[in-house]
Design a protein that fits this description.
- This protein has 343 residues and is of the alpha/beta class.
- Helices cover 33% and strands 14% of the residues.
- The strands form two sheets. The protein has a seven-stranded mixed beta sheet with strand order 3-4-7-8-9-10-11.
């Protein structure tokens, strides 16, 4: 692995490697939750990452204490980042985890710098900062404490239930700065979950996190991502998901259609050929122009989800304080996926 050459853009900004080979310790743990996982412990030289100006992201700075993710989501757009380390973007991304063990102390030092202006910091936007490794390495408490102590605004996106461990710290931070929490739940279909997000807590457990955060006085939105074409976009599936999100007490729901960037695209399409070969040609047509589904498809999904969100009281038109927590009722069985002729 080319640790020594790992830099953001050495040809343009002159940065040295983010960490050197001498700073890497490789470990494995013979416990059920980590069997087959290799951890590469590194001492990073920087932890604040500036988002490229061309990015679609609505924030400028991120903190990523981990690279690679045991959630093993087959669609994860961050898979390409493992190729920068000469690591495999498929199984390697799921099982070769880079841990920046000095992230909390490094962040505290960088936040204290005179050059730092207190910009919003987003976490969990590349790989999940509350993946299983966090249970062992416990990097997030120190990171949140540093942000709290500097009253620096931040947000967290996660599929992990471990965030509830840090509830007291999140409350303390919310008392002094802006804190945004979102949980990712793209669908509630359990069969789809088991195959595309095999290392994550179930959608029901993630919605329990939303409920617990809301009950603790920390507003929590849901990123309904990804909506997976032809597998998770049936109107009944969308309705069941939005209804469950509303029942959890979420403050909002934001849909995001699956996108397939290089690295993720190859891995997802290999999975599709194995599990749903009849959909391969349709995906090739739908994503023929690049990583994103056509605008018409994205608009259709967004409009439908927003209409459902309005119906259940958490849509864009809902006024503050009028979010309703609806009782969870069994949903009728969904029909088997069919080969529709949308394209």
């Amino acid at each position: 692995m080319r640790w020594d050459n790992l830099a953001d853009s050495p040809a343009t900004n002159g940065e040295t490697a983010l960490f050197g080979a001498s700073a890497v310790t490789t470990r494995t743990f013979d416990t059920p939750e980590f069997r087959g996982i290799t951890f590469h412990e590194v001492r990073a030289r920087s932890i604040l990452n500036r988002v490229p100006g061309a990015s679609r992201m609505p924030f400028e700075w991120t903190v990523n204490p981990y690279r690679g993710c045991t959630h093993a989501c087959v669609y994860c757009f961050a898979r390409k980042t493992h190729s920068y380390l000469d690591l495999d973007t498929g199984l390697g991304f799921d099982s070769q985890i880079v841990v920046k063990v000095n992230a909390p102390e490094l962040l505290r030092r960088q936040l204290a710098s005179r050059q730092w202006q207190g910009a919003h910091i987003a976490m969990g936007t590349n790989v999940d900062c509350y993946q299983r490794a966090e249970g062992r390495y416990r990097l997030m408490p120190g990171i949140i404490a540093a942000l709290r102590d500097h009253a620096n605004p931040f947000s967290i996106l996660t599929k992990g239930t471990l965030i509830l461990r840090d509830l007291d710290l999140l409350r303390q931070a919310a008392d002094v700065t802006e804190v945004g929490i979102s949980v990712s739940v793209g669908f509630t279909d359990r069969e789809l979950w088991r195959t595309v997000e095999p290392g994550t807590p179930s959608p029901e457990r993630r919605l329990d996190v939303v409920r617990a955060l809301t009950d603790a006085g920390i507003g929590c939105g849901v990123l309904m991502a990804p909506v997976i074409p032809f597998l998770g976009d049936h109107p009944d599936q969308l309705r069941a998901t939005v209804r469950a999100i509303a029942a959890s007490g979420a403050t909002s729901v934001t849909p995001l259609v699956l996108h397939l960037r290089p690295g993720a695209r190859e891995w997802f399409m290999a999975w599709l050929r194995e599990h749903h070969p009849y959909l391969v040609a349709r995906y090739e047509r739908l994503y023929a122009e690049g990583a994103y589904a056509p605008k018409w498809y994205q608009r259709r999904i967004t409009r439908h989800v927003h209409e459902l969100a309005d119906e259940f009281g958490i849509g864009p038109s809902a006024r503050a304080g009028e979010h309703r927590r609806l009782p969870v009722r069994p949903e009728p069985a969904l029909p088997e996926p069919t080969q529709l002729t949308l394209l």
